[in-house]
Amino acid sequence: MKSLQECQEEVVEDFSMYDEWLDKYEYLIDLGHRLEPFPEELKTDDRLIRGCQSRVWLDTRREDGRLFFRADSDAIITKGIISLLIGVYSGRTAAEIAADDFSFVERLGLRENLSPTRANGLASMIETIRRTAENLV
Amino acid sequence: MMQLEKIRQEFPALGTQVYGKPLVYLDNAATSQRPLSVIRKWEELSTERNANLHRAVHRLADLATQEYEATRDAVRQYLNAASREEIIFTSGATASINLVAFSFGEAFVREGDEIIVCEAEHHSDIVPWQMLCERKGAVLKVLPVDDGGRIRLGALPALLTPRTRLLCVAHISNVLGLVNPIKEIVKICHSAGCPVLVDGSQGIVHERVDVAGLDCDFYVFSGHKVYAAPGTGVLYGRRELLSRMPPYMGGGEMIETVRWSGTTYAPLPQKFEAGTQNIAGTPTLRPALEMVKRLRDPEILAESNAIKSFMLNGLNKISGLRLYGEPSSPEEKIPLFSFSVEQAHHEDLALILDKMGIAVRSGQMCAEPLMDRFGVTGMLRVSFAPYNTLQEAEYFMQSLERAIKMLRG
Ligand SMILES: Cc1ncc(COP(=O)(O)O)c(C=O)c1O
Hints:
Chain A is α+β, with helices and mostly antiparallel strands. Chain A has helices spanning about 5-15, 20-35, 75-90, 95-100, 105-110, 110-115, 115-135; strands at about 55-65, 65-75, 90-95. By secondary structure, chain B is an alpha/beta fold.
């Protein structure tokens, strides 16, 4: 498995290939569509991430000391964004995730290119992943 | 075309760009852009006539007071109210409604009384009434809309009882874009002895408002949606009611005499204008209402009508698109369209359209009960002002189709 840093570099690189924001959205939409289906029965209130305008569910599974995330959203761009995050963090140990500063997200330029409400939603997603990991360390 | 182009040039924001693309501003129901006449009025008041009102003998105070009171006369005339005492300046529609909810509530609402609000109301015309009902132990009843968003007038008589104190309804819903049958509603309510408050936040922009003709008892609106400065607003109230209502806030020029033994209040309209008023903002209502009149030019109205049929036609052709607010006749609809599209979330659409230079609104539009009524978590809303062009509508429609295609993959 690639290291967390390598994985983040790859995501930043892939994302920076597109100059136009519409193309970046297209990429996120594509990721969103390809995200592994999320079981309907997991769409419970305790899995809802607060602070997002669209609904986002995050499920965490722990296996052999590693965390596996699954997620869904009714908005596809949001789903693409969370897919990026899951791709980076899923399958890693809680300690590894908790030690990360999540700064690679800044380098994607997402925050300033989402509406303030969406940027809040992104912050909530990150916060949820970080907190989940911290609680398990 | 000439007239519209000329007027558009008077709105500096309309000539700006976002992300290097010309701004196509279609979120007018949230707030309108402002013309130079309004911007200059604000500037003039801030530079040449800045003084507090009614309070001093000096020249500036005199000029500021004249401007302010001349604005009251202009608003009275524009709304066709019977007297200037019936025009109260506030900070916006929400403030106007809260004023009525408090002061009318104090004067007329007792435990067990009833208030009716329409199902399609903005939160600003729901929450103050819920608060009043909670305070007084009164009952809030809901006037329903049908599946097309039209008010079910037939349901109204049965809702009215001897204990109904007030009915509150929007002139035009900010979600559905339908012009409500205010005259009929008022007639039915008055025959049951119930006064009517009209939330004219959208109505003032798109309809010729005549409070005498409508025969409503209160009419409220915000300045910022109708080209004036933000933080300005109007409450029209029938004098018989206003004079029997106690003040909302105390202080400033709303008094006659203040003694430790007790205070007496100023007559209307000052009774309801406590504290320093929006001295630079409120007078912008005058050039703003002038702009409303100029935008009622036949050529511009024709463009608006063309936009309306173009949009209705175009939206109806998109598969999986559901439009909320179906008019019985074209006159009943303003160029405001809220809809949802299968496999294309409103948030995603708004985000993509934004990057194409188009400003629209997505979400609940401050009307959660109406969202529940239609079983959706939100909608996309495109709201045109009279200064928008058919060309912008065409660009919007192409962009929407492109965005939907992107999202459906
Ligand atoms: C129908 C309606 N009522 C009330 C309001 C509240 O207006 P404001 O926020 O300016 O007080 C709005 C605007 O948001 C509206 O569209």
